[in-house]
Every structure is written in structure tokens, then in C-alpha cells.
What does this fold into?
Amino acid sequence: MSFLVEDDPAERRFEILVDDALAGFTAYLPPSGAVLVFTHTEVEDRFRNMGVGSALIRGTLDQIRERGDRVVPECPFMAAFIDRHPRYADLVVPKP
It folds into this structure.
């Protein structure tokens, strides 16, 4: 399986493609400067329990770091991922 995580600014979400099929997304509110508030993560049923959600969040956070942006993880899935992977904790800012 190949994973590709891409930002879709028009839809305000990062999407994950698995072997070229849309497998899930994590949505954010319109950016406020360099801060994105993530509200919801969803993975298609046929891709669940395959590590797709974690790959999506990891790829999203890696791109956020590269851009020099920060996150507010209102989405429980993203917040739990960051709790389990403290190397991403520096990207978190308090809710505005």
C-alpha cells in the first residue's frame, strides 16, 4: 500500500490517498495566520484498522511543521495522536 497525504486548501482539509483512492481526511477551519484548527478526522470504512488514520495525521503534522505553521487539535483523534507522539507537541497552540 502506498500513502500520499496532500493539503486541499479549497476543501480546507488534508486528504490521504491509498493506492490513488481517497481513504480519509482531516478537516480544518479557515486558517488564522499560521494556525490551523483541526475539527474532524474521518477514514473510509474499508481503510479502517490499517494505520491509515495515523498515517494521515502524521503526514499532516509533518507538512504543518515544514510550513512553519501550528495547530489547535480540536479533533479528538488528532489530539490523541499528539498525546501518543510527543514529538509533535511543539506544534500545538492553545485554542484562540
Observations:
- The two ends are 38 Å apart (CA to CA).
- The beta strands are 3-8, 13-18, 21-28, 35-43, 70-73.
- The first helix runs from residue 52 to 67.
